[in-house]
């Protein structure tokens, strides 16, 4: 069984317009990533590390980790949580750049994933994660509520 069923399902049923819009964003990302390496290496990079699909998959993977609780044999450092929250921000940026009809296709699955994230976390009313997330929370818009949530069972405490 795949570890990202909602993302896989979304990609399997994307419309042609959505595939093209996502491909355009991925092409821009590819150029950004190529610009960060030497001219000699640019040609060897054929796909961006951070495709839109991989960003969805990463968000879903985090949620699956949160839903399953700490894994004593696994390794999920706190820094990965912050990176995953940054990734969620990037999905918001992606959606904002898509045509309205395409945005709706991706937003539907993202809303389902966000609901699962919310169910696997609590509002951080005490500021438990402030020592580590204060700077990021200070930069995050209030509507990016994932920054103010704490896992019910923190995977970095496995």
Give the topology, please.
Layout: H1 5-13, H2 16-35, H3 39-42, H4 52-68, H5 78-97, H6 100-119, E1 121-123, H7 130-139, E2 149-151
Antiparallel strand pairs: 1-2
Fold and architecture overview:
- With 158 residues, the chain is mainly α.
- Helices cover 63% and strands 4% of the residues.
- It is built from 7 helices and 2 strands.
- Strands 1-2 form a two-stranded antiparallel sheet.
- Helix 1 (5-13) runs antiparallel to helix 4 (52-68), helix 4 (52-68) packs across helix 5 and helix 4 packs parallel to helix 6 (100-119).
- The longest helix has 20 residues, at 16-35.
Our measurement of the CA-to-CA distance between the termini, rounded to an integer number of angstroms, reads 24 Å
Strand order of the largest sheet: 1-2
Overall outline: globular
Low-confidence spans = none
> How much beta, percentage-wise?
under 5%
Q: Structural class, judged by helices and strands?
A: mainly alpha
Helix content: 55-70%
What is the subunit arrangement here? single chain
Main sheet attributes: strand count, strand direction, barrel closure: 2 strands, antiparallel
Radius of gyration over C-alpha positions, nearest whole angstrom = 17 Å
Mean pLDDT: 93
Number of helices: 7
What's the SSE pattern?
A: HHHHHHEHE
